[in-house]
Design brief:
Layout lengths: L1 E3 L1 E3 L2 E3 L5 E7 L4 E8 L2 H18 L4 H17 L1 H12 L3 H18 L2 H4 L4 E6 L2 E9 L2 E5 L7 H12 L3 E5 L6 H12 L7 E3 L4 H9 L5 E5 L2 H13 L3 E5 L4 E5 L5 H13 L9 E7 L3 H15 L19 H17 L2 E4 L18 E4 L6 H4 L6 E7 L2 H10 L2 E2 L1 E5 L3 H10 L4 E4 L15 E2 L2 E2 L6 H7 L1 E9 L15
Parallel strand pairs: 1-5, 8-9, 8-11, 9-10, 11-12, 13-14, 13-19, 14-17, 16-17, 19-20
Antiparallel strand pairs: 2-3, 4-5, 6-7, 7-23, 12-22, 15-16, 18-21
Bound molecules: nicotinamide-adenine-dinucleotide (NAD).
Protein name: methylmalonate-semialdehyde dehydrogenase (CoA acylating)
EC number: 1.2.1.27
Pfam family, one: Aldedh
Length: 497
C-alpha cells in the first residue's frame, strides 16, 4: 500500500504523522493508498518553511516570477494527461473532464504570468507643490489554501499561482480524499524553478485546517468547500486576525422560460446536472420549469437521462460519460436523498439506484436520477446533494421563478434559458446570485474574471482569481512623497496647495 506524503521544502516527507486516511479508487471501491494526516509538528514545519521562503521570495523581481510561471505553464501542458489520470484515479471523474479541469487551472497560471502588469499601482504627480502620491500592493506573507475534493487540480490553482505571483508563499491543504494531484502540481512548479518552501503541500484533515487558521505566522486563508465548513473557517480565521475568503456550497437553479428551445434546454440541464456525477459546485441541481414548459421539458430531460445510464462507467473507459462518486460514504449519502425524495412524495421519473457497470460492481455507483414535482420543503430541494440527482420544480411565472431562486440561501450560480433578451436582462439584474449564465448552464468565469457566489455560498468579500484574487493576496499602501524636503514647523492639518 503506497503512502501519499506531504511536500515540504521541495521534498516529499511523511513528517511525524502517525494518523492516515484511506484514499480509494472510486471505480473499483478498493483502497488505493493512504494519505498521511498532519500533526501540529507537521503544520509548524510547513509554515516555518514557508515563512523562511517568504523573506527572499517577496524580494524576487516581477520578471523572475513571471519567467517561472511561464515555464510552469509549459510543464503543466506537457503533463496534462498525467495530471488528468491522477485526478480520475482518486476522484473518479472521466478522463476528458479531468483534462478540462487541468486546462481551467492552467488558465489561471496564464493569467498570473501577467503579474508585472497586474501589480501596477496608481500614480499622481504634483498632488501638492513638489508632492507626488502613489499606491503599492505588497504581499501578505504566508497564505494557506484549503481545498475540496471535487476539483483537486483546478481549485488549488485558483489560488496558489496568484498568491505566489504576488510575492506570497503558500501552504496548500488539499482534500484528504484525492490528495495526490497536489504533490505533482508542487513538484512541477519546483521543476519550473520555484524555490523550495514557496509552495508547500500539507496533507491532513480538520486538525490541519484548524492549526493553520490558528497559526500566528499564517496571514490569510483561502477556502473552498461546503457551507458549514466555510462558515467555520471564516469565523475561526478572522477571529485569529487573518484575512479569509471562504467559498461554500451551492444549489444552482436553471430557469427555463416557455419560449426557450426545449431541446437545447434539456441538453443543457442534463450536461450540467450529471457532468462529473453532479459533484461540481456549479452543477445545476434544480430545473425551474416555467409555465406550460413543464411536461414537455421533463419528458425531454428524462429520455436523455435514461440514455446516459449505459455510459456510466469507470472514468478511464473511453465511452464513459459519467464516472462513480468519490467515496462509498458519499454515494450512500446521495442515495439516502433519493430515498427521502421518494418518501416525501416527489415523482421519481428516472431512478439511478442499484446501477453498477459490469465488472466494476464494487465501485461507488449511482446513475443519473431525475425527480419532478419537487417542492421547496423537501430535503432534495433544501439541501446540497452533490451527486447526480436533478430535481424539477414547477413555477407559474417568471416572477415566481425569480422569487424561488432569490429565497434560496445559496447564491453560487444560476442559468436562464430563453430567447427573450429582455427577460434575460431582468433576470441577470434582479437575481441574488454571484454567477449568472444566459443560455449557458455552467457560467464559470474565465481566469481573468473572478469566481464567487453570494449569500451562503461565500463568506468574506473577495472572490477568487482575476483582479479580486490579486487584491486578496496583497495589501495596499498609499505613499505621499515630497521632493525637495521642506523646512519649517507647521502644526496645521496638511492640505494641498
Ligand atoms: P468539505 O467542506 O467537506 O471539505 C473541504 C475542505 O475542508 C477539505 O480540505 C477538508 O479536509 C476540510 N474540512 C472538512 N471538515 C472540516 C472541519 N470540520 N473543520 C475544518 N476543515 C474541514 O467539502 P468537500 O466535500 O471536499 O467538497 C464539496 C463541497 O465543496 C460542496 O459543498 C461544494 O459545493 C463545495 N465547493 C464549492 C465551490 C465554490 O466555488 N463555491 C467549489 C468547489 C466545491
Amino acid at each position: 500500500m503506497s503512502t501519499i506524503p506531504h511536500w515540504i521544502d521541495g521534498a516529499r516527507t511523511t513528517g511525524v504523522s502517525s494518523r492516515t486516511s484511506d484514499v480509494f479508487n472510486p471505480a473499483t471501491g478498493e483502497v488505493a493508498a493512504q494519505v498521511v494526516l498532519a500533526e501540529q509538528a507537521d503544520v509548524d514545519l510547513a509554515v516555518s518553511s514557508s515563512l523562511k521562503a517568504a523573506q527572499s521570495w517577496s524580494e524576487s523581481s516581477l520578471s523572475t516570477r513571471s519567467r517561472i510561471l511561464f515555464e510552469y505553464r509549459h510543464l503543466l501542458h506537457t503533463h496534462r494527461d498525467e495530471l488528468a489520470a491522477i485526478i480520475t484515479s482518486e476522484h473518479g471523474k472521466v478522463l476528458s473532464d479531468a483534462a478540462g479541469e487541468v486546462q481551467r487551472g492552467i488558465e489561471v497560471v496564464e493569467f498570473a504570468c501577467g503579474i508585472p502588469q497586474l501589480l501596477k499601482g496608481e500614480h499622481s504627480e504634483q498632488v501638492s507643490r513638489g508632492v507626488d502620491a502613489y499606491s503599492l500592493r505588497q504581499p501578505l506573507g504566508v497564505v494557506a489554501g484549503i481545498t475540496p475534493f471535487n476539483f483537486p487540480v483546478m481549485v488549488p490553482m485558483w489560488m496558489f499561482p496568484i498568491a505566489i505571483a504576488t510575492g506570497n508563499t503558500f501552504v496548500l491543504k488539499p482534500s484528504e480524499r484525492d490528495p495526490s494531484a497536489s504533490i505533482r502540481l508542487a513538484e512541477l512548479f519546483g521543476q519550473a524553478g520555484l524555490p523550495d518552501g514557496v509552495l508547500n503541500v500539507l496533507q491532513g484533515d480538520a486538525f490541519a485546517v484548524n492549526a493553520l487558521l490558528d497559526h500566528p505566522d499564517v496571514s490569510a486563508a483561502s477556502f473552498v468547500g461546503s457551507t458549514p465548513i466555510a462558515r467555520h473557517v471564516y469565523s475561526r480565521g478572522t477571529a485569529a486576525g487573518k484575512r479569509v475568503q471562504a467559498l461554500g456550497g451551492a444549489k444552482n437553479h436553471m430557469v427555463v422560460l416557455p419560449d426557450a428551445d426545449l431541446d437545447v434546454a434539456a441538453d443543457a440541464a442534463v450536461s450540467a446536472g450529471y457532468g462529473s456525477a453532479g459533484e461540481r459546485c456549479m452543477a445545476i441541481s434544480v430545473v425551474v420549469a416555467v409555465g406550460e414548459t413543464g411536461d414537455a421539458l421533463v419528458e425531454k430531460i428524462a429520455s436523455r437521462t435514461r440514455d446516459l445510464h449505459p455510459s456510466v462507467l469507470p472514468g478511464t473507459d473511453p465511452s464513459a460519460q459519467m464516472g462513480p462518486l468519490v467515496t462509498g460514504v458519499h454515494r450512500d449519502r446521495v442515495r439516502s436523498y433519493v430515498d427521502a425524495g421518494e418518501s416525501a412524495g416527489a415523482s421519481l421519473v428516472v431512478d439511478g439506484r442499484g446501477y453498477a457497470p459490469e465488472g466494476a460492481e464494487n465501485g461507488f455507483w449511482l446513475a443519473p436520477t431525475l425527480f419532478d414535482h419537487v417542492t421547496r420543503d423537501m430535503t432534495i430541494y433544501t439541501d446540497e446533494i452533490f451527486g447526480p440527482v436533478l430535481t424539477v420544480v414547477r413555477a407559474d411565472t417568471f416572477e415566481d421563478a425569480l422569487e424561488l431562486v432569490n429565497a434560496n440561501p445559496y447564491g453560487n450560480g444560476t442559468a436562464i434559458y430563453t430567447g427573450d433578451g429582455l427577460a434575460a436582462r431582468e433576470y441577470q439584474r434582479r437575481v441574488h446570485v454571484g454567477m449568472v449564465g444566459i443560455n449557458v448552464p455552467i457560467p464559470v468565469p474565465m481566469a481573468y474574471y473572478s469566481f464567487g457566489g453570494w449569500k451562503d455560498s461565500l463568506f468574506g468579500d473577495t472572490h477568487v482569481h482575476g483582479a479580486e484574487g490579486v487584491k486578496f493576496y496583497t495589501r495596499a499602501k498609499a505613499v505621499t512623497a515630497r521632493w525637495p524636503q521642506q523646512h519649517g514647523v507647521n502644526l496645521g492639518f496638511p492640505t494641498h496647495g
